[in-house]
Structure formats: structure tokens, C-alpha cells
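Methods: example folding runs. The two proteins below were folded one after another, and each record is reproduced exactly as written to the output file, sequence line first and C-alpha cell line second.
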Amino acid sequence: MKAQLLSEEQATVLSTKPHYAILDGLRGVAALLVVAFHLFEAHATSHLDQIINHGYLAVDFFFLLSGFVVGYAYDDRWGQMTLKDFFKVRLIRLQPLVVLGMIIGAVFFYFQDSTLWPTISEVPVWKMLLVMVIGFTLVPVPVSMDIRGWQEMHPLDGPGWSLFFEYIANLLYALGVRKFSKTALSVLVIVAGIALVHFAVTSPAGDVIGGWSLDPVQLRTGFTRMMYPFFAGLLLCRVATIGSVKHVFWWCSLLLVLVLAFPRVGGAEHLWQNGLYDSLNIVFVFPFIVWLGASGQIAGTGASRLCKFLGAISYPVYITHYPLIYTYTGWVSTHKPSAQQALPVALLTFAAIVLIAYGSLKLYDEPVRRWLRNKLIAAR
């Protein structure tokens, strides 16, 4: 009976603890910028001429936001919440759309056959379906099961790699880091920050792009990109004094757009300069944006509705958009249109991504999460 009361209390608190509405909105802004980045990426010849050049840093921004929100949502609940409860809540929040993202990836897979991925048509259906089912669990597939040719952990839905590291971050938090003092957490963050700056500045590509494969280099990239921002977000939640600032959503959004859209720094001759740009934004600018967003007050119903909408579609956009990006990229590689010639198709793809994300949210994600909460949490 006591366990049942605790679970009911926990479910009530989880549903009523207020969100940082501006942070929800900023997550949506970053997700839409990721979509635009990937659409332009289909036309780029290298990292040097990519439009919205630093859109890949949105992943690092997501990690920092996630650490901040996890600390805010769960740090004060461990007296009433077990490890099992925590993992249930996180799985309910994240896993349904992981499954749907893999299904969407399977539906679009054979439409992506192109000069870029000429062997897709040769992949047997059973193998594609096996990769899909493994993808449901977020367990990375080995290179031997790569069905696309990019050596991805999740060939049907590439962004699954960042969810894989998100789960690792949650495991580290729940199993130990949540108990760290502010001093111990600060030491962890400083060490992770030094590792991040060193990695970015010495990177052969001059950036922090990567993390989506099981090979040692990519795994190091993924862990380096996850460790600093996630636990810096957690530390920020614990130590920052949250103020009260009006009209900050627009300024935060503008700053985020400027950081992600900024042209490549240093060129081919000075790759380290772009790595320094990446790391300094992750280490200093992103925490500032999150702190400012958390301190913000929304003025007006229009801004409030916009933040709510952007926050609601942010995760669905991120986890379901890439199958359409694969398809668009394959079309570009085969037909070789210029960015200007491809603009109508790019805009249609962008609109389809948003519509699919919104439909996924309303018709699948929200009902499934509600059912899972009733089954696994509230009904105990």
C-alpha cells in the first residue's frame, strides 16, 4: 500500500512539476535547425562549404539541455523514487518514438536507393527488418550488419546514436553521479571540458562531428560529446541562480541561430580554429543560453503557444526526420540539382518532416506514453 501511494504521488508530481517553457521552445528551434542543416548537407562538398555550418552542434546543445532538465526533474525526488522508477520514467519518455523512428526508417529504406547508396536494393528484406527490430532497443548494430554503407549504429535512423549516448548519460547519473557533491561534479565537468577542448582542437576534421559508429574513434567522439555538456547541464541546474528576465526567448533563439549558422572558421589551412569555435560554444555559450532561457519569463500568449508547440515537436522532429533526409540526399546524389533547383523539394521535405513529427506526437507518442504511465507507474 505504501509503495502504491508513493507511485501515485510520484506520478502526480511528474505530471505537475512546471517546465521551463523557454527551454522547451529553444529545443524546438534547435531541432528545426538540425533539419535545415541536414537538407543543406546534401548539397555540400565538404564540411568547409556547408550552409548552417555548425548545425551539428545542436546535438551538444541537446545534451546540455538534457542534463539541466534531468537535474531539475529528478535531483529532489530520490527519497520517493527508486532506480527502477527512474528508468521506467525515462524509457516511457524516450523509447516510444525510438521505435517509431526505426519503423519510419524501414518504410523509406528502399526508396533511398541511389548513386550514393547503390547497394540498398540488394539488401534482403529479412535483414532490413532484423536491423529495425534491433534498433527498437537502441542496441548498436555491428559494422557487419551495416545495410547502408555509412557504418552507422542505426542505419535506418541515424540520430539514434545520440539517444544511445543519452541513455548512457542517464545510467551514469542514476547509478552514481546523482550522489556527487557540487565539488565532485565540478571536477568531473572540468575534466570532461578539458577533454572536449583537446579533442575538438586536435580533431583531424577540425570539428566535433561524429559519434554514430561502433569503431573506437567514433565511440571516443560520442563519449566526449556527451560527457561535458550533459554533466555541465546538471551542474548548472545545481549551482546557478535563476533570475527573471523578460523577452529572452527571442534573444536566446537569435543567439542559438547565430552559433549554429555561423560560417566555417579557419578554413582548410587552420582546422584547429574551427575546433576551438566548437568547443568554446559548447563549454561557455550553450550554458549561458540555457541559464538565460531558464531565467526568462514569457510575455504574451503568442510566445507561450509558440514555445509550447516547439517544445512538443522538438523530440519527434529530431528522432523521425532522418529517414526523409536519407531519401532527399539520395535524390540529390542521383539527379544532382543545385540547391536553388532543389529548393521546392527541400521545402516540401521540411514541411513533411514537421507534419510527420506532429502526427507522430498526437496520434502515437502521447497516447502510447499515457498508456504506459497508467500501466507501469500510476496503476502500481
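Second run, written to the same file directly after the first:
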Amino acid sequence: MDLLNTLVDKGLRRELPTREEALAVLATSDDDLLDVVAAAGKVRRHWFGRRVKLNYLVNLKSGLCPEDCSYCSQRLGSKADILKYTWLKPDEASQAAAAGLAGGAKRVCLVASGRGPTDRDVDRVSQTIKAIKEQNEGVEVCACLGLLSDGQAERLREAGADAYNHNLNTSESTYGDITTTHTYADRVDTVQKAHAAGLSACSGLIAGMGESDEDLVDVVFSLRELDPDSVPVNFLIPFEGTPLAKEWNLTPQRCLRILAMVRFVCPDVEVRIAGGREVHLRTMQPLALHLANSIFLGDYLTSEGQAGKADLEMIADAGFEVEGADQVTLPEHRTEAAACGDTGGCHEGGGVCGSAPAVAGEPRTDLVAVRRRGAGTDLAPNA
């Protein structure tokens, strides 16, 4: 396909596709799916070889969030039967992180539900970061605490944080349909604060919330403009007890096309398969490794993931290798730009074309398992 040849050439040059080209990837047929994966795989291997970076989530506090994000099991008014607990102590969080690191994770992501951290919360997380860094040489630590106030990103970096995650989730035009207690602009502001403080910015999306192809392209183009180092791609986990519990809009093929589109638009960044891969990609997960160079190991915030041992076997069986602590994730030009404070930037795309409607998948509620182990419990974690 001429389209795919063009996208590979652009990806190898870090040139932004047009919006029309990005939309065309999402509209490709199942008959062309392996060609799409192979093309995006060339771009992935050019920048990241066959390495897969492993990340491990530690949910520092679970549930009872005052925000009303429709996709979230921890939201205000959620009836999802999830674990609820207040802040883990630094030694508890460090112990939880150690399990993931022992399983091969290179980065620990410290997450706390809520609108954003108080200064006391930043102090608490700073102590946790220091505890993890003292006990695990070379570990990367990413914080995800919600909306940041002035000066908080700088304090987290001083404490040893390497990165900060705050996802855009969906397009600006539809954001108000998903969340009403804060704005899309609030999220952009927090990503910019993290970037300005010298933290590696991590920001991504959630697919499967009923959005159009145009919405997906909008949010990925917005991410390219923000220029994060890593882009997590979440696939909605439709928790019972949340407003989006009935949104089963994804198929494995749709998920692969979304990941391919993200890779073409963001060729040289860490594309991470995040929440929902087991629910929606299912047996097609190994193919997704040809598109993304990063995954979460083990469980998520409030749901269980694939067994850590199964993740490692999947990576090896697919012909990939786990990225070592001594290996640099990002291409040299991105690490050099970060060192000199260059925030990158991007180029404007072209026009818009129509989208093909998604074919809804059959609800697989049997695949949505609430987390009952690890942080906040007395049971061993999945790592």
C-alpha cells in the first residue's frame, strides 16, 4: 500500500503524517491489518530495536476520588467493588515496588487518586521516592498524582522523580462529555509544568469510550504537540458501577490499528500498552509488541493484569527482549534534547477525512477482574 510506504518513510524521518493519513490507518480493513502492523513495526524497530521496557504500577491510595471521570472505577459516585485504602507508608510502597523490580520492571509508577496533591502529599510522595531510590539502584520513578500546582513538579524532581504522568485521555472537543470536575486545559497545563521542571513527561489516551476516529487522531496529534517522552495507550476497562460500564466498542483488530496510528504519529517516543490490553487485545497481545515498545508488568490500579510470568514468556516467545536497567530507552536525539532543555515541538498536519464506524465487541465482563492482591492488601503482588 502506498499509504503504508509513505508512513514508514515519514516515521523514519520523524515527520508528522497528515491527519488524512492517520485517519486512513484507522479505516484500514482487517484484510490489511498484518500489513499495517508490519509497516508500523519497521518504525518501532528503527527507533527501539526489539527491546520492551517493563513498568510497574503502585497504587499509593485507592478509591474515594472527588473527580467524576466517567471511565474511572475510583471516581466520585463509583459503585465499582474495588479496594479502598488511604496512603501507603513509604516503606509499604517501597516494598510493593520491589516486587515489580524483581520481576524485571525498569520503572515504578507511583499513582494516587484525587484532583491533585496537597503540599503535604508531595512531601509524602517525596519520602516514598527517596525510599525506593535508596533501596533500588538505577530505578526510574514516575509520579502520577493528578493536577499539579506551581512548584510541585520541581519539588518532585528534587526528591528524585524522573518522570510525571498525566494523560489527556481524549480529544479536547469531547473532554467535557467524559469529565466535568476539571478541564482539558487543566491537563495540558500539568503536562507542561512537568516538562518545564525537567521531568520526563508521560501523557497518553484512553480508547474505547465511544469516541470517533477523529477524536482519536485529535488527541494523538495534541500529544505529539506536547512532545512527551512516553505515550501510554489505555483501552477502556468497562467497570461495572461506572458510567461507561456498557462501552464495549473495541476489538483486537481495532486496538492494533490504534497502536499503529500512535506509532506513526509519535515514531520516536516510548509507546506503552497500558490498561485493558488483556481485556481487548487478548490473544493478539504479542502482535502489539511490534507496535509498542513498553508495557505494564502485572496488575493495574484497581484491576488485575496478566500474570507477570506470562508477560515475560510472551515477550520472549514473540522474539523480543526485556530492556535492561543499563539500557537507555529513548533514541539518542531525544535524550540529548532533554539534556539541553529542548522541548522539541512538532509540525502541523493536513486535512481531515471521514472515519469508519467501530465494530462493537461482545462484552467480556469475565475478563475484568478487580485487584484483590498487592498494595493495600496482605497478599503477594502480581509481578
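Comment on the second run: Strands lie at 51-61, 107-112, 140-144, 163-165, 200-202, 205-207, 230-235, 270-273, 294-296, 321-322.
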